[in-house]
Amino acid sequence: MDEKEVETQNNTLTIEISNEISSETKDDIFDNIKEPRKEIEKHKKSIDRIFVSQYMDDTSTYNEVYGSDDYVVTYSKEDKSFLGWSVKNNGPQQPDVYFKADQIEDLNLRLGTLLSKKILSLYGYNKHWLIDLNSDRTNNERFLKLKQPVDCEKNIYQFFSNDAIGFLPNDLIQVSVRNRKIYKYCLKDRPINTVLWEYSQINDIEIPESLYGQVKNLRCTICRTKLFLIVKGCKTTILQFDLLKMNLERQYIANANSLSSMVVMNTNQTLLAYYCFIFSMKNGMLISYENYGEEPVEFITLKNNSERLVMNCYSNVHKLIDPYQAYDEIDISNDFNKTSVITKLNRKIFIDNGNVCVRNGSDENKLQQLSNEVIYRNSIYTSSVFKIIQSMFKEIIDRADIKKVASPDDKIKLKNRDLYEYILRPNDIYDEISFEHNDIISCCIPFPHILSYKLLNNQDLIIISMEAIEIFALLDKGFKNRYFWKNNDWNDIYKKFEKDRNSIYDINFVNEHYKPLIGRILKYEFNDSKHSIPLPNFMGQNTNHRKTIAEDVISDNLVSSKFGIEMLKIAIKENCDSVVRPIINNTIESIQNYSVNSMTFISLNLPKLCDDYPDYIIKYISYTSIILSPFCDNIRNSKNTSIHSYTNIYIKESHMDKNVFKAISSIYKWLIQHLRIKEEIQTVSFIVPFPQICVYQDDSKKNDHENHVNENNDHENENNDPENCDFNNNDYESHASKNNDHENHETENDDYENQDSKNNDHENRETGKNHDIKSKIITILILILKKMITGLKIIMMIPKSNSIWNEFLYKSKSILFCNIDSNHFYNWWNFAAIIDFKWETFGRVYYYLIWLFYTIFYVCYSLASTLELSDFYFKLLFIISIIFGSTFLIFEIRQILWNYEIYFNDIWNLFDVGAYLLPIITSIIWLINKSQPLWLMAISIILLSFKFLLFFRVIESFGIYFAIIIGVAKRVFPFLVLLFFIVLGYAQAFFIVLKSNITNDGSDNLFNWFPTSLLAVYKLITGDSGSLSSFTYRENPTMTVLLVTFTFFTVIYLMNLFIGLLNLAIGDYNKKEEYLLQKAKIIMEIELFYMLPWQRNNKKWFPNWIYYDLPVTEARKLINAIDNEQTVFNYPPIISEELRNLVVLTDDNNKLENKIDQTKEELKQQMEFIMKNIGVEKDNEEEQDSEEQEQENKLEKQMEQTKEELPKQHVGLKQQMDKHALQMDKLALQMDKLNQQMENIMELLLKRN
């Protein structure tokens, strides 16, 4: 009996094994099996599991490049055997390999199985097996052992998941989150015998040190070429890595408490499912969330390219859901179980009587009918509504003639609502739907000729008119516009209809234009691959309708995540405030749920929002000032006593496979950990809510392309400019006119007046033509100049792209510092974290190198200018100065070419140019003349010294003072201009009054020359009036008046006013944020002008997300200040419940008081219970008790009075003691005087004796 293929009625392909097998097949399949037929029959009767290749039915480029991988393996637990099957669409089907594996014990299917390239990965309990089912191996060689043992513990609740195994097109991947390693094994290097499979490459999973204490629960899974690391914190963060490039692509944030590590994605990598969450892989937004159960299993692509997701719910119940409409579910438990699988292309592979069968999967028509039956919620953006509109379009074009739904004489009742009715009244120019009662119209809406309408179950009315698709909600007393859509083609046809037919219905016009139009709409916007109606054209509506359509989108979480951002882009472009306001408010609210899509949109459009909607961006920046990191679920200890920023987990190539490197690394880590003498403090982690704000575009290729395009455009403009073409024509015309004039001059020589007139005309023409020639020359020069600038930009490698952050730095400070509160509890933390990250990652290395080279330049020029050296050393030092100075000057030129407005707006850049240019000039002069002007040398040294001092700006203790100096100078500059003109006026007045009439006056009168007159007036401001000492006030009354007014108005009034302004300006700029802004601009210059384009594309230096640690005391102070109204914000920051639980201290005293009150209440109740059971005591005992109580009360009052009086008595006694001490001091003085007198008397008596 030959091998055969039987096709059943339901299009099933049954793969049977023939009883007779050729000798060649026996040798290939049943190697080392004594009784193959019996063994296979036993296997077929006891099949427990079916495994399908991960790349089966893969419609991506994988199968095109690497070939088909349609392979199935069946497993028998009873027989402990495997049978491999090649599944093909045509030709007979037969098994490839039979393999008996007695050493395999119970499989742990929770850890997953994987099949690719006929290599099967299986997990047991504390065991892992790799089975190679390729035909080039014998049974003894089928087990593969990796050099790095696979970690697979039994406990699924461990902090780190088991090792994940995956397959790339040419490699096997092993990911060990416990060791933080990724091992790559080349499939071509598989060992033939039982030797260990050597890895070809190792990569490290780098976790920043600040995340060590936060990443406690780390799991991983591999899905084709993507690695997903799942980190459990206060939220669940899913990090998506590309295993081909080993870089982080995107992150997803879910509010999930699941320990699952199962992640699946669809074939074209646009949808991702984790637990009960479905995300878009294009922008990271959450598409839907429905709590169905445990985990997703597989995405299925239907024939119309729509997607379905298989979910494994509780109790092994499998459901098929629409990922865009997750509430539509179908139970497919019979089609998806241990021995039945549905592939990505909706093919069902199952076991039937021991045979592998392949047939069509779920009935797609039935799926569509189920989706169309019921609308579960009040949303118009469902697949059900989409299919209804699609069917309405099909119904319209299926008509022989596209007629209106009713003739002008008809009256159609659409719906009743209480005493009112909705009536459709057709007219010649338009149709009308009115809301009326007893033919009294309350309100109505006109429509330009309705072609079809449909009333939905949720009381919404769909209308397709000649103008557009519209959906209205029929309310109790009126209408609400929910949707309006038409494409550009539709809009053009409708305008043509209005113009050509004056809005009067013409069936010929409709048939001619609208049938093809609807056909195109069904082909593109409403084809079977779509799931929802398109984004509404809200901008074509009036203000109220725009607002209602926007609110309808915002109120639906699923729709707002899909269309909200796109609507906001359009509204911002059109400056539609009525739409921007509610969408931005909704976006801000979604930030609390870590909406990646919303954060990214705000971040990427930050400069435009700052310009057009500053109030809204101020609100966003203020609200998102402190967003808790999704990794953070506890407070941890850190040695970073201030803000410390860091990036996400990333992958880097490992050099640790050698023991030497391992030893050095371990020693280094031990030294870092134990020798850092720093005090540990408690910190809490936050996230900067501006993803991709620091990311640059790939501008290396872009620059080359754009420059090439500009060159071509300039060349084309030069050749195709009509003015340039006219230039040659005008030359020819000018030459021809000259010849004609000459001929006329010869022929009409006798008529003098006529000749004179012609000469005048000739001169006028010559003048006009000369003017044209000059204008053409100027145009050519401008074009040449543009080409020179373009070429210079190419040579100088001027960056054309910029990051959002760098653009944001030059916005108004009212926006930059908008979230700084009145009492500075909040210190610009989000933006300080960005600056800290850039500085610590690359900024400080570049900056200190620049500083070093400048120091060499400074020292060389200073030595050459001040020391007496030989000509050789002079020449050497000046040449070094020219080389370094020219290098620095080139970087300054690059800044000017990049943006001259920004460059010249900063006056300190002029000091930079002077510090580089003047030393170069003086060095060149010395090399030519062997000497240089002393005044030029002195100025050069001063500028070099100032520039050297400016390098200290990055050090905080110095930088704050530089910020004050620079900021105050800018603030008082207008006042200095005013003061200068006052001094100029008085200098001129003194010069006129006091200058000497003698030409060669040899006196020291400073007012004889105007420049020295200016100097003399300046000296008056400083208090030096020596320039007026040679003049008498009586002989020069005018001078006296000028002196009095100048000293009072300028020296006394204006100078004191100037000092006051300086104090105010110092107070404004004596802030840390000014220093940080200054530091940020320095780092920006490093990025743009000292980095190469490929360095600006380094994701480790310019990541999508930045996190930072902050001392918990700072966060606690801020939250307490906000709660107790001790500070004022423009908008108070959003403080999540998780952050409050982590940071805010509980009031222990209140808890104690509550506990005491509760205890008192319990004692009181117990006393009442005892009194009821014991009875009432005698009256006299009560009286005695009352008397005793009164005595006790009196004693207590006396004690309280005594306590109050004691301090007073103490004070009185102290005062008395002080008085007594003074009296004693007086008595002691008197006694001393008496003693002295007695001694004097005794001396006198002795002398007399």
Structural class: alpha+beta
Shape: globular
| Rg estimate, integer Å | 45 Å
Biggest β-sheet: count, sense, barrel?
A: 5 strands, antiparallel
| Overall pLDDT metric | 76
End-to-end CA span: 168 Å
Number of helices: 33
What are the segments in which pLDDT stays under 50 over at least 5 consecutive residues? Answer: 1-34, 699-758, 1176-1181
Strand content: 15-25%
Percent helix range:
40-55%
User: Biggest sheet: strands side by side, in what order?
Assistant: 1-2-29-28-27
Q: What is the strand tally? A: 43
How do you describe this structure in short?
With about 1250 residues, this protein is an alpha+beta fold.
Structure report:
Residues 1179-1190 have a biased composition (Acidic residues). With 1249 residues, the chain is α+β, with helices and mostly antiparallel strands. Among the domains are: 32-144, no CATH class; 383-531, no CATH class; 968-1070. The strands form ten sheets. It has a five-stranded antiparallel beta sheet with strand order 1-2-29-28-27, with no helix packed on it. A five-stranded antiparallel beta sheet has the order 11-12-13-14-41, with no helix packed on it. Helix 10 (577-590) runs parallel beside helix 13 (614-623). Residues 1-34, 699-758 and 1176-1181 have low confidence and may be disordered.
